[in-house]
Amino acid sequence: MDARIGKEIRLGRILRPESKRSVTVAFSHGVLLGPGKGYFTYDQMAEMMDIFQAADAVMLSPGMLGQLSEYYVGRDRPGLIIQADWQNVSRARRGVFPGEGLSVPMMTAEEAVASGADAIMTYLWLGGDDPELEAKEVARNSAFARACEVVGLPIMIESRGLGQEYDEDGNPDLELLKFHTRVAAELGADFIKTKYSGNVDTFQEVTSQCPVPILVAGGSRLSTITEALKLVDDVITGGGAGVVFGRNIFQFDNPAAMLKGILERVHNEE
């Protein structure tokens, strides 16, 4: 059998075939950040998963899938993305310990397929001043991508910058952003998750020079619903394929309404 068929089928559960767009909910924060608003307890997570049924896909960590698998079983359920990497880069940046931080795998492509996954997500960190670390990042993601090709599993690479990722205005360094998104595609990403460039014109530069769909990460919760929805509008105007939002959905007072507003903007729904 041709594993490319499996990739096509699974990818169509995440990126709508007619538009190649997606609204994915990131719900794997606990494995990186510990407990937080919206996912302190299993009951809270189950309540949110009921709401997330309207999304194109929902991303979980490997350990939570066993507790929440029922939300993926049956018709009209969201696609399943499993976060296959764990990283402490974010904590290193907060000064928890010195250095850049690292990413390590939590699950193989074969294990993800056995778990019913429609895709996996890995991190790709490029930039900084450590060429050995950068090379290890490329090697790890290449190994994941080749394994995914064998078993027919799509891979979403979250490409990010190390070192001076952001400019003086707080936006990602544009040249680094264009570099790591293109490298992610060249390594074999079927679609990419990354940070927004800061404005529509620069984001069009990024999307026009990357041959696979780019989804924008929401990151920390924005101040207002208006601000979050404007980001969605700008992503689509700039050629993006949608968003991967977590806290910008489940940490607002009305997550269902927030998700509905995002779906309307990404998929031009009424």
Structural summary, described in words:
This protein has 270 residues and is α/β, with parallel strands linked by helices. The protein has one domain: TIM Barrel (Alpha-Beta Barrel), CATH 3.20.20. The protein is built from 12 helices and 10 strands. The chain has helices at 3-11, 30-33, 42-51, 62-68, 89-93, 109-114, 131-151, 174-187, 200-208, 225-237, 247-250, 255-267; strands spanning 22-26, 57-60, 79-83, 85-87, 103-105, 119-127, 155-162, 191-194, 214-217, 242-245. The strands form 2 sheets. It has an 8-stranded parallel barrel, surrounded by 5 helices. It has a two-stranded antiparallel sheet with strand order 4-5. Helix 8 (174-187) runs parallel beside helix 9 and helix 10 packs parallel to helix 12 (255-267). It is globular, with a radius of gyration of 17 Å. The model has no long low-confidence stretch (mean pLDDT 96).
Structural class: alpha/beta
CATH superfamily label: Aldolase class I
Number of strands: 10
Low-confidence stretches: none
Main sheet overview: 8 strands, parallel, barrel
Q: For the terminal residues, how far apart are their CA atoms?
A: 40 Å
Percentage of residues in strands: 15-25%
Characterize this entry briefly.
This protein is of the alpha/beta class. The protein is 43% helix and 18% strand.
List keywords for this structure.
TIM Barrel; 43% helix; alpha/beta; 270 residues; two-stranded antiparallel sheet
Topology (elements, then pairings):
Layout: H1 3-11, E1 22-26, H2 30-33, H3 42-51, E2 57-60, H4 62-68, E3 79-83, E4 85-87, H5 89-93, E5 103-105, H6 109-114, E6 119-127, H7 131-151, E7 155-162, H8 174-187, E8 191-194, H9 200-208, E9 214-217, H10 225-237, E10 242-245, H11 247-250, H12 255-267
Parallel strand pairs: 1-2, 1-10, 2-3, 3-6, 6-7, 7-8, 8-9, 9-10
Antiparallel strand pairs: 4-5
Helix pairs in contact: 8-9, 10-12
